[in-house]
Amino acid sequence: MTRVVVIDPQPAIRAGLAMLLRTEPGLVPVGSAVGARDGLELVSVQRPDVVILDPHLLDADGLGTCRRIRALDPAPRVVLYSADDDPSLPVTARVAGADGLVEKSAPEEELFEAIRVVAGGQTALPALDREQLDAAAHRVDAEDLALLAMLMDRTEPSDVAATLRLDRRKVARRVEKLLGRLRSQPPRSIPT
């Protein structure tokens, strides 16, 4: 049985997912939360296998919340469940440590499959093309390119810290800065 927590600001989404999960063999909803604060508390109490998380919460940034969830011990797997048509989300999902990404408009079977895949230790993230990678590389400072590359390759946080010769808190601050740049800034112009 895969235990699932839902964190989403919309009551209809939370209720609908709870109902759908109850009908799907092997998936067990163990709670839902509105935002980051109550979601993190619920996750630490229920210890789910998978968290379905909206990347846009009302009380905090969902991608930052994803990072905090993935830093727990033991860390549940996270599937971002988004209605947003943000072309940078496949990149920022990886930087935040998400294990899967599913659009809310996708058929429910796609969400169920993503939950099963990530619960099995794999990822359910869309493939990235060269254009997406180039756009991400041009949004970050040159000193953060190695960090971006390691996060895209899903390098373990302890290995990232060791490679960069930084403690985990400094790495966490740089990742937050990196996420901010990837989400909010237009790409830097490329010198010709």
Helix content percent band = 40-55%
CATH fold-level topology of the largest domain: Rossmann fold
Radius of gyration: 17 Å
Return the CATH class of the largest domain. Alpha Beta
Query: How many helical elements?
Result: 9
Query: How many separate domains?
Result: 2
Task: Tell me the structural class.
Answer: alpha/beta
CATH architecture of the largest domain, please?
A: 3-Layer(aba) Sandwich
Mean of all residue-level pLDDT scores? 91
Q: What does the main sheet amount to?
A: 5 strands, parallel
Q: Distance between the terminal alpha carbons, to the nearest Å?
A: 55 Å
Strands of the widest sheet, in order across it, are 2-1-3-4-5
Question: Which blocks of ≥5 consecutive residues have pLDDT under 50?
Answer: 185-192
Overall shape: it is: globular
Count of extended strands = 5
Strand content: 5-15%
Fourth-level CATH superfamily of the largest domain: Response regulator
What are the salient characteristics of this protein?
192 residues, alpha/beta, Rossmann fold, 2 domains, 5-stranded parallel sheet, 9 helices, 50% helix, globular, disordered C terminus, phosphoprotein, EvgA-like, CheY-like_superfamily, Response regulator transcription factor
